[in-house]
Amino acid sequence: MATVVRMPEVLANTGEAVIQTWLVTEGQEIAVGDPLAEIETEKAVVEYVSEVDGVVGRLIAEAGSTIAVGEPIAVVLAPGETDADIDAAVHNGVDVSPTPEPELVAVSAPQPAAAANGRRLFATPLVRKLARERGIELDSVNGTGPGGRIVRRDLERLPVAEPTPQPSPAPQPARTPAAVESRATGFTDVPLTPMRRAIARRLTESKATVPHFYVTADCRVAALIELRRSVNAAAALKVSLNDFILKAVAGALIEVPDANAIWNGDSIRRFDGVDIAVAVAVDGGLLTPVLRDVHTATLSAIAAQTADLAGRAREGRLQQRELEGGSFSVSNLGMFGVTEFSAILNPPQSGILAVGGATQRAVVVDGELMVGTVMTVKLSADHRVIDGAVAATWMAAFVRRIENPLAMLI
Amino acid sequence: VDAELIDLRWLDRASIDWDTITASVRKTNAVLIVEQGARGSSYGGWLADEIQRRLFDWLDQPVERVSGTEASPSISRVLERAAIARTEEVVAGLEKVRAAMGDVN
């Protein structure tokens, strides 16, 4: 029996994913465990392997297109089957995967045809099609066509509720002549990538639902920069300032365990070890791969792990598990000449440290004005988990490590 | 009037330019078939039938038609005028299509 392969839910709570590349071609023989395709979700690229033996009969989904979870993406044939079996499998929904969602969608689609009161709702075929595509309830639309019929203009008058990411085969050209003529400058609408959508959703959720507060400190880093220079003079793998910062963050989180915790709905989850997410700027967005067990790792191990994760993040080769977990993030914009900034928490983490660049500034020591190398850091904390005093204690522990860097090498 | 005018040029079933018709209907979502002669056994009836079948989901109103009325063109000047569609009928047809588009904002 031909098997319909459907888009898997690669990552919990994702509604859709993109086939990045097909790793098989039509007519190819495959066995259980053979990779079928690389599937790109919001953050990671995952290899999807076959669950059946057979011959690839048809690749339904095109590479690069966004497919809803549960939609058919390919058909695998058993030996001796033909194209007719493919069509039968696709149309009858004969399959082994337990996701009957597409049928449900298909059945519910024509429902808007009838108004809530049971009388027929008059709308043109085009309007019904557009309403289906955009998820508009026609009950609430006021028709201005003949006899109160709902026509296209009635839909165009509606505020753009939510743009559907669904790619339509022939997009309706935007036809609002008056508006176009009076607009002075042009613009380009760049379609959202899955990553951009994830960033928008997660950060909006974070800023709107997590009570942020901020604690700022200046660190004298002359000693740290000097230490790094002498370490790098001997080391094969160069250690960056950021690696020292990660080490200091981990040390401070161990010293102040109250800060090494996240909000868990009806409890506070306190971690035994320290996993830290590092913000990495990539083409078209950013990723936050997580470094494991930073509290026990040596500086060179941290440097190697960071370089590996950042490199693979830029290539889009991170696994989903490398993006999950951790109680804390570090975001460093120092290399862009930024002195200080405030970061938004990366849920469900409860802390993020925004690191500015080290610059020479006027400092006062024992009543005397002198020049010092100063780095400003700003901690954004989740007040549900971390109180002001805890954040201040943590910050003091962090600054003490940064200003006495030799202790970190022990 | 903001409309697209299509001169079909080929009228037989095999050669009719569905690409042009389809593109235009997808853009305007309305069709007005204009012909001079009587409505009864005319070409427009067949064309309207095909259009609604092929492009149903792209139509925002019924396929409208302009044609002559049921009169013999040979007996009198009045009847001849009634038998054929001219500018006035085309204008009336366009008005009807415009009205069926609903209110402008």
Report on the architecture of this protein.
- The complex is a heterodimer of chains A (410) and B (105).
- Chain A is of the alpha+beta class.
- Chain A has eleven helices and 18 strands.
- In chain A, strand 4 and strand 5 (45-49) form a beta hairpin.
- In chain A, helix 8 crosses helix 10 (388-403).
- The two termini of chain B are 17 Å apart.
- The model of chain B has no long low-confidence stretch (mean pLDDT 88).
- In chain B, 16% of the residues are buried.
- A two-stranded parallel ribbon of chain B has the order 1-2.
- Chain B is globular and about 45 Å long.
- Chain B has helices at 18-28, 43-54, 77-83, 87-100; strands spanning 32-38, 64-68.
- Chain A binds chain B through residues 124-129, 143-146, 149, 151-154, 156-157, 170, 173, 177, and chain B through 2, 26-27, 29, 56-61, 99-105.
Along the chain, the helix and strand elements of chain A come as EEEEEEEEHHHHHHEHHEEEEEEHEEEHH
Low-pLDDT runs of 5+ residues of chain A are 94-116, 162-179
Q: Label the overall shape of chain A.
A: globular
Distance between the amino and carboxyl termini of chain B: 17 Å
Most residues in contact: chain pair: A-B, 20 and 17 residues
Instruction: Give the N-to-C terminal Cα separation of chain A.
Output: 64 Å
Mean pLDDT of chain A: 81
How many helical elements of chain B?
Answer: 4
Keywords:
heterodimer; A: 410 residues; alpha+beta; 6-stranded mixed β-sheet; 4-stranded antiparallel β-sheet; 11 helices; 30% helix; 24% strand; B: 105 residues; two-stranded parallel ribbon; 4 helices; 2 strands; 42% helix; 11% strand; globular
What is this entry, summarized?
Chain A has 410 residues and is of the alpha+beta class. Chain A has helices spanning 83-92, 101-108, 125-134, 152-157, 177-182, 194-209, 222-234, 241-255, 299-315, 388-403, 406-409; strands at residues 3-6, 16-22, 29-30, 35-40, 45-49, 54-59, 66-68, 72-77, 212-220, 261-263, 268-270, 276-278, 280-282, 285-287, 290-291, 328-332, 351-365, 368-382. In chain A, helix 8 crosses helix 9 (299-315).
